[in-house]
Every structure is written in C-alpha cells, then in structure tokens.
Amino acid sequence: MLYAAVVVVAVAAVLLAIDGVRRRFAVVTVDGMSMAPTFTHGDRVLVRRVAPSALRLGQVVVLQQHADHQSWDTAPLPARAVGTSRWYIKRIAAAPGDPVPPSAVRGVGAPAGTPVPVGRLVVIGDNVGESTDSRFWGYAPVDRVLGVVVRRMG
C-alpha cells in the first residue's frame, strides 16, 4: 500500500513538473526567411516566456501575428496559444523608452529618436529585404509577445 502511494506521489510530481516546463517554455517552428541567416525556414526554436518588463533591445522574440494584417487581438494570449496562433519571429529594434530607429519611422509614424511608448516594441527581421515588420505595420504590442528565443533546437 505504501509503495502505491509513493508511486502516485512521484507520478503527480512528474506531471506537475512537466506542466510547469510547458507553461515556461514553448517550441515554435520558423516559417519564412525574415530572420535569415540567424534562423531559417523550418528551424525549431525554444522560446522562454517572459514578462513584458523583461523585453530588451536586441532580443529575438516570437509574437502573435495580427489576424488581418492590420491590428492585433486585445485579449490576453491564451495559455495554450502555441498550437492555436500564427507567430512572427523578429528582433527587438527598440523597447519601451528606447528611441525609434530611423528605419522604422515610416511604419510607426513617429520621428526618429522619439521614445517608444510604454506597452509597444519596434521589431525588425534580420533579413530586412524579406521581412515584414514594424517598418511596415508600426509598433508591436508587448502583450502579444509569446517569449524570447533561447536557442535553436537540434
């Protein structure tokens, strides 16, 4: 009887640990060449979920695509968003309070050097010739960020 109780507790602990990892990390497959050569089509990347306040200049983030290529949803990202949403992978060119880079002026509608508003990011793909990003659709909301890319998988 004691052995069965120990097994049940061990299985429960393992399941809780797995659930904790799934809430903190996600694996996303890159679709497209906007981040080449850093990440290319078909690469799988490990994404660590972070608070919006942890986002910094230069980080590569995965953020939810806007539904109609005009605006983002305003509801919070669902807990199981990875399988239900489409994603962008971009590099943060300016975080809240950072100056708007000259390359994004047209898209965000603000002069270069203007501080990025709270709750917004300027994101740009590494492969600027193949990337649709803040240069075209303006600021990205921080609440649409799934997380920061930690590494390429296998």
- Number of strand segments: 7
Secondary-structure element sequence? HEEEEHEHEE
Fraction of residues in β-strands: 15-25%
Radius of gyration, in Å, reads: 18 Å
Q: So what's the overall shape?
A: globular
Major sheet summary line: 7 strands, antiparallel
- What is the CATH first-level class name? Mainly Beta
- Helix amount, in percent? 10-25%
Provide the CATH topology.
Umud Fragment, subunit A
Descriptive notes:
This protein is α+β, with helices and mostly antiparallel strands. It has a single domain, classed as Umud Fragment, subunit A, CATH 2.10.109.10. The chain is 20% helix and 25% strand. It has three helices and seven strands, in the order H-E-E-E-E-H-E-H-E-E. It has helices at 2-24, 105-108, 134-137, and strands at 25-29, 44-48, 60-64, 87-94, 120-124, 140-141, 145-152. A seven-stranded antiparallel sheet has the order 1-2-7-3-4-5-6. The longest helix is centred in the first third of the chain and has 23 residues, at 2-24. The radius of gyration is 18 Å and the shape is globular. Mean pLDDT is 83; it is low at 13-17.
